[in-house]
Specification:
The protein is mainly alpha-helical. It is built from nine helices and three strands. Strand 2 and strand 3 form a beta hairpin. The relative contact order is 0.11. The mean pLDDT is about 90.
Length: about 160
C-alpha cells in the first residue's frame, strides 16, 4: 500500500479536524441565527450579558478571544439594534460597561440554543468516555500552546 503524501497527512490531524469542526459549527450557528438578524459573535455577546449580567467591554475581548476592533463593531451593531446598552464605567470613564436591554432580553428568550443543536447533531451517538478523552487532549494541547515561550524559540 502506498505511503500517504505529507500533504495529505498534514490535513488529517486532530488539529485540522478541530478546525474543520469549528468552521462547520460556526456555519451552522450562523444559519440558525440568520432569521433573527444575528451572527455568532453577536450571540456570544448576548449570551454573556443575559447569563452573567453587565460586563466590561474590555473583558469580552478576552472572553471571546477576538480583536478589540472586531468587538467594537459587534457592540456598535448590537447597540444600533437596541439589544445592548453601552455606558461609561463609573470608576474608570475610559471603560465601557455593556448591558442587555429589555428588547435584547426579549429577543434572547425567543432565540433557539444553537450550541445545544450543534452538539446534539455533531456528537449524536458519541461515546461519553471518548468525548471526555477528546476534551482532555484538546485542553492540554491548548494549554501547552498558550504557555509555550514561542518568542524564546526565535532566538
Amino acid at each position: 500500500m502506498p505511503k500517504p503524501s505529507t500533504q495529505t497527512h498534514r490535513h488529517d490531524t486532530v488539529g485540522s479536524w478541530a478546525k474543520r469542526l469549528y468552521f462547520a459549527s460556526r456555519a451552522v450557528m450562523d444559519t440558525i441565527l440568520r432569521p433573527y438578524g444575528l451572527g455568532s459573535t453577536q450571540w456570544y455577546v448576548l449570551y454573556q450579558l443575559a447569563n452573567n449580567g453587565p460586563t466590561m467591554q474590555r473583558d469580552l475581548v478576552r472572553m471571546l478571544n477576538i480583536e478589540r476592533a472586531t468587538l467594537s463593531g459587534v457592540v456598535t451593531t448590537l447597540v444600533g439594534k437596541g439589544l445592548v446598552s453601552q455606558v461609561r464605567d463609573a470608576e474608570d470613564q475610559r471603560q465601557r460597561v455593556l448591558r442587555i436591554t429589555r428588547v435584547g432580553g426579549k429577543l434572547w428568550e425567543a432565540l433557539p440554543d444553537p450550541i445545544a443543536q450543534i452538539l446534539a447533531v455533531a456528537f449524536e451517538g458519541a461515546d461519553p468516555a471518548e468525548m471526555e478523552i477528546a476534551c482532555r487532549v484538546l485542553q492540554a494541547a491548548t494549554k501547552r500552546l498558550n504557555e509555550h515561550d514561542w518568542e524564546g524559540e526565535q532566538e
